[in-house]
Design goal:
By secondary structure, this protein is mostly helical. The chain is built from 9 helices and no strands.
């Protein structure tokens, strides 16, 4: 697990893109993560592969433009804003194709279901939470003893039995579980802090 201070002080991927849409590394990571997600979502709802790619490109371009103008307002969340922009970009694309004789109904069926947007929102939410957890894990790993972190890592991440982890670490099984429980509590607290800061 990296202890790079730049990673620890940076916000999650979506927050990095929000803060600096011109950052090519952050934007490339954002596209790499969300373009396949948007394409898969469109394909599940009847879009042709070429249309799914077009939708993804339009959504991402709209997001890039919108993020340059985004300013967080009191009581609003970046995630909620991101969902709205994504939905609007997608609807713009679908509407532009609906009246075109070149694309007779090729993606019309997508607009018939609000479940499609719900799927994308759920996936984006999961990705956001995974990013928060990864950031919290980097921070907690830097704050606890190596043996404490290893007890957590072996049992919670690698799913080793307590006896096997204890043998590897040369410690009592009870201590393995004490360390694991301590790290889990610290992670839970850190994720809560990150959510309150970022949402």
């Amino acid at each position: 697990m990296s202890n790079d201070p730049k990673k620890d002080t940076s916000v999650t991927l979506m927050m990095r893109v929000q803060e600096d849409p011109a950052d090519p590394r952050a934007w490339d990571e954002f596209v790499e993560r969300y373009q396949p997600m948007i394409c898969a979502w469109c394909l599940r709802w009847g879009s042709q592969p070429a249309d799914a790619d077009d939708v993804a490109q339009q959504v991402l371009l709209k997001l890039l433009t919108a993020m340059k103008k985004y300013r967080r307002q009191s009581g609003s969340s970046f995630r909620g804003w991101l969902k709205t922009v994504t939905h609007n970009a997608w609807l713009d694309f679908v509407n532009s194709r609906q009246n075109s004789p070149q694309y007779p109904g090729s993606i019309e069926s997508i607009t018939d279901s609000s479940d499609a947007l719900a799927d994308l929102e759920k996936e984006m939410q999961s990705a956001f939470e995974a990013e928060l957890l990864a950031l919290a894990m980097r921070r907690i790993e830097a704050r606890v003893k190596p043996s404490t972190w290893e007890a957590f890592r072996l049992t919670a991440i690698e799913n080793l039995q307590g006896v096997e982890a204890a043998a590897r670490l040369n410690m009592d099984v009870s201590n393995v579980f004490v360390h694991k429980h301590r790290v889990l509590k610290l992670l839970e607290s850190e994720v809560r802090v990150l959510k309150s800061e970022r949402c």
